[in-house]
Amino acid sequence: MRKTNSYRRKKNPYREVYALGQHISLSAHKVRRVIDQIRGCSYEQTLMILELMPYRVRYPILKLVYSAAANASHNWDFKKTSLVISKAEVSKGTTVKKLKPRARGRGYPIKRTACHIRIVLKDTSWYEYDENKEYLLCLKKMNKKKKKHEDMTDYSMYNSGGLWDKK
């Protein structure tokens, strides 16, 4: 049996820290709607966005973001102010199928869906010390994300049918 020399490996300064929530009894489609808005944001900005959202989905996501940040600060001594959500993934979990009894001996199918959420945080403080202006380039790469409702948020946020009115 061959021994691995883990002590010889260099520590990765670009460490990513994650938190994983499994079997959360929410639809993956509804969770993706919220996850798409926080992907690429900083930790503090993510907390503000999630605090103001009117969706039920925000509670498990908020717990996972807190958990990932606690993992980063406790295990790797990262500062919470320099954390950025680099990845946020939602995958479909198990579906529990039941039959609800109806009139005349019929059954009505009920599907209870679940999903798995993975939040990955990346520490960006090491970019600040690079002198080749790589800091700005890397932040631009992280902040490039698809904004589907960017033009809607300014003028129709508070109108009916806007971005926040979806249940």
TrEMBL record:
CDD domains hit by this protein: Ribosomal_L22
A Pfam family the protein falls into: Ribosomal_L22
Annotated keywords: Chloroplast, Plastid, Ribonucleoprotein, Ribosomal protein, RNA-binding, rRNA-binding
Keyword Lipid metabolism applies: no
Principal subcellular localization: plastid
GO CC, any one term: chloroplast
Biological process per Gene Ontology, one example term: translation
UniProt cross-references to InterPro entries, sorted A to Z: Ribosomal_uL22, Ribosomal_uL22_bac/chlpt-type, Ribosomal_uL22_bac/org-type, Ribosomal_uL22_CS, Ribosomal_uL22_sf
Subcellular locations according to the entry: Plastid, Chloroplast
GO function terms (MF aspect): rRNA binding; structural constituent of ribosome
Keyword Chloroplast: yes
Function per UniProt: The globular domain of the protein is located near the polypeptide exit tunnel on the outside of the subunit, while an extended beta-hairpin is found that lines the wall of the exit tunnel in the center of the 70S ribosome.
Family: Belongs to the universal ribosomal protein uL22 family.
Subunit structure: Part of the 50S ribosomal subunit.
Database matches in PANTHER family: CHLOROPLAST 50S RIBOSOMAL PROTEIN L22-RELATED, LARGE RIBOSOMAL SUBUNIT PROTEIN UL22M
HAMAP family on file: Ribosomal_uL22_B (MF_01331_B)
Protein name listed in UniProt: Large ribosomal subunit protein uL22c
